[in-house]
Amino acid sequence: DAGVIQSPRHEVTEMGQEVTLRCKPISGHDYLFWYRQTMMRGLELLIYFNNNVPIDDSGMPEDRFSAKMPNASFSTLKIQPSEPRDSAVYFCASSLDRGSQPQHFGDGTRLSIL
Amino acid sequence: AQSVAQPEDQVNVAEGNPLTVKCTYSVSGNPYLFWYVQYPNRGLQFLLKYITGDNLVKGSYGFEAEFNKSQTSFHLKKPSALVSDSALYFCAVRGYTGGFKTIFGAGTRLFVKA
After folding, report:
1. Of residues A98 and B23, which shows the higher confidence score?
2. How far apart are CA B105 and CA B90, in angstroms?
3. How do strand A31-38 and strand A10-13 relate by DSSP bridges?
4. Hey, is the C-beta of A70 within 8 angstroms of any chain B C-beta?
5. Would an 8 Å CB–CB cutoff place B40 in contact with chain A?
6. Residue A113, CA distances (Å) to A12, A40, A44, A79 in order
7. A49-79, pLDDT tens digit by residue?
8. Does B32 touch chain A (CB under 8 A)?
């Protein structure tokens, strides 16, 4: 079991640039989650998918953020245009269900917008 | 509304002493409760969960947690702390309220002193 794989691990870019974060969930997991972690706000759920379909995107902060899951083994989170306040660690997680099974987290992407 | 509280930002304990990290929750119906641990520059790792049954749940690395329905608590415990247990610990609750989304606490930083 390779675990949830995120790339890149670190991203530094200038304000206004497009940023794309990538995630490969654990094979067989039907649920995929995107979180953002900051010191001020803690861990926030941005969006989650079930069987590649977005179910709840109420946590996406604004229209600059978008997420896709074109197939069961790949998801992206895009920020366009990026702003300094988007600087955070972004985590992807997957799980077998949304009930009793735990979520499995990747090691995150540390994003710095200058 | 569904919520989880970790009343202590930080817990300090000497190596070899027992440790407790506190968690209380609010959710409609029967909750699913989880503990996760986060080490520096890593994603959250699942430690243990309570779904139903025995109120004392055992998990990874010698950790256990006690579910108390009357006090709506799910405190994390370990009989003898190790320096390597120093990390950030998150309690999470999942319930019917809010469409079975997982709500994470703010986290408690555990320092184990040699």
Report:
1. B23
2. 6
3. unpaired
4. no
5. no
6. 6, 17, 19, 11
7. 999 999 999 999 889 999 999 999 999 999 9
8. yes
